[in-house]
Amino acid sequence: MKQERLDWLADCPFYTKRFAFFVGRRCRESSIRDVARETRLDWRTVKALEMQYMREQLRRVGTPGPKVIGIDEVSVAKRHRYRIVVSDLLRRRPIWFGGNGRSEADLDGFFVWLGPRKCKAIRLAVMDMWKAFRASTLTAANAPQGAILFGKFHVLRHLGEAIDKVRKSEYRRLSGRDRRFIKGQKYTLLSHRRNLTGKGRASLKLLLRANKRLNTAYLLKESFGQLWGYRSQRGARRFFDNWRHALKWQRLKPYENFAAMIERHWNGIAAYCRPENKIALGFVEGLNTKIRVIQRRAYGLRDEEYLALKVLTCMLPPI
Length: 319
Known about the structure:
Layout: H1 17-27, H2 32-39, H3 43-61, E1 68-77, E2 81-88, E3 93-98, H4 104-114, H5 116-119, E4 124-127, H6 131-137, E5 147-150, H7 152-173, H8 186-190, H9 198-210, H10 212-224, H11 233-245, H12 253-264, H13 266-270, H14 282-297, H15 304-313
Parallel strand pairs: 1-4, 4-5
Antiparallel strand pairs: 1-2, 2-3
Helix pairs in contact: 1-3, 2-3, 3-15, 4-6, 7-10, 7-12, 9-10
């Protein structure tokens, strides 16, 4: 007995490829359960058709050859279970999802998958300050020629934690009615003044007038963002030295710890001053948010192959 293979049939032979692609396009906007209800199919069938659609998307774009990559981890389950996501920042799409954690060996898997020839073309790697990512990238067998750049949003997150520690210490130091200016103002201090509403600006003005240390801490936080505007490492270094010198006699221990951390990772931060490294750094964080939306829409995903396909195709055009 022989079974004829028809090109226009889907992997599920009861349906055509055209119908499978229709289901795949609908699943980009809705959950599997909603599409199954709309098409009157079993949800397992809808999932299988969507996976075929996503595999075809990846086949059409081909194997990537990135020059600028972004590296980040995403939580896939409780108890600190992570997977690594690597993105092509010039083409603005994820290209690899894998690993069993966020260790150096897990990221090595990406460079093995990419191959030595394409690894040599990588000139810049954007990441957070996780030591394992930097060590794996600079390994001789991976991409030692690539420059390391620490993401702006990861650095500012540490600065936000520092000002919040100052706020908490001031709240503990004061008592009685003096605490009323500080209580509930965490996100007011973390926000930029231009992003606050009229009520928020009034609360911030009252808080900074009432507490000198928080006023100093807020001004230092706002001014630190100028670091990414310099076009030379020399100018950036002069700005950081002056910013760090302004901490003297201010009794802001969290800020001093933050400045020491920046000093230890200075090369990876100052690399942004080079003209060839002036790229948009928000894509990695935006992708992480998009992945969390995918997970929430499905109330969690246990099938890691399906999750990997959803992540790798979320930025690809529909077919």
